[in-house]
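Quick one:
INPUT:
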């Protein structure tokens, strides 16, 4: 319990950094002081306590009272919860749990960035894939029922359906970044759960997309009021032709099945929770 708590507290700090990474990627350097994006006021340490500062400030800048995106506390809280769950996982030493946290942090960054910009940065996808192969590979290969060839092929097998959708549609149905992400998901979850996560993501994506396409103006106005910017290519509305990012669905199904794997839970139960 104490280990999970410490990992969760560390996750709050990492989540704060992930917000900086997501907001500044491709725009400006990660260096430099944080400031209000509206009035430019530099933030003090009391303005940057994960989750707490956003609540104490009522989600507004201390000087100009501009809305501060609810993305900040949500990412911090999600990272804290994921780190706590990783920290509480049995049968793994502290080094492996630390590596698992790095993998989890990259997944959260990819999901949120894709949600905002409908694109997955290549560097993040490649780093995720390399880490999963390096970290999870030895664990799977200790299992005598998993051959070396089968495990190595689990990444390409998971990525193949998304790659074919990208290839056939010329990028209209699926982005190539999703296939690159699926490569790492296959290596993270192994031969069976890897491809399962991909198809589960399609089911989750279909259900959520139907909800998005329903007339929900009040919810959309609430999201806009609270500074949530996402799906920038949607042009202010959602239609059957809107570009809906698939990365968050992949990440959601991946993390759900991954946690069931770390805790030794029957994957069918994980799928039940997922679907």
């Amino acid at each position: 319990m104490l280990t999970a708590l410490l990992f969760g507290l560390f996750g709050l700090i990492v989540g704060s950094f992930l917000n900086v990474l997501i907001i500044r990627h491709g725009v400006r350097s990660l260096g430099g002081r944080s400031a209000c994006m509206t009035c430019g006021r530099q933030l003090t340490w009391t303005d940057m306590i994960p989750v707490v500062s956003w609540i104490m400030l009522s989600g507004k800048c201390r000087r100009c009272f501009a809305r501060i995106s609810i993305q900040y506390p949500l990412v911090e809280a999600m990272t804290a919860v994921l780190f706590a769950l990783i920290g509480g996982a049995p049968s793994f030493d502290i080094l492996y749990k630390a590596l698992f946290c790095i993998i989890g942090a990259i997944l959260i960054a990819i999901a949120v960035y894709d949600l905002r910009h409908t694109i997955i940065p290549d560097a993040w996808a490649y780093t995720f894939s390399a880490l999963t192969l390096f970290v999870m590979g030895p664990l799977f290969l200790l299992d005598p029922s998993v051959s070396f060839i089968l495990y190595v092929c689990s990444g390409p097998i998971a990525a193949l359906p998304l790659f074919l959708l990208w290839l056939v549609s010329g990028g209209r149905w699926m982005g190539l970044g999703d296939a690159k992400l699926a490569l790492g998901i296959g290596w993270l979850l192994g031969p069976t759960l890897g491809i399962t996560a991909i198809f589960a993501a399609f089911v989750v994506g279909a259900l959520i997309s139907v909800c998005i396409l329903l007339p929900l103006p009040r919810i959309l106005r609430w999201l806009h009021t609270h500074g949530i910017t996402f799906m920038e290519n949607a042009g202010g509305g959602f239609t059957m032709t809107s570009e809906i990012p698939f990365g968050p669905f992949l990440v959601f199904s991946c993390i759900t099945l991954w946690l069931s794997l770390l805790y030794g839970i029957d994957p069918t139960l994980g799928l039940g929770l997922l679907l």
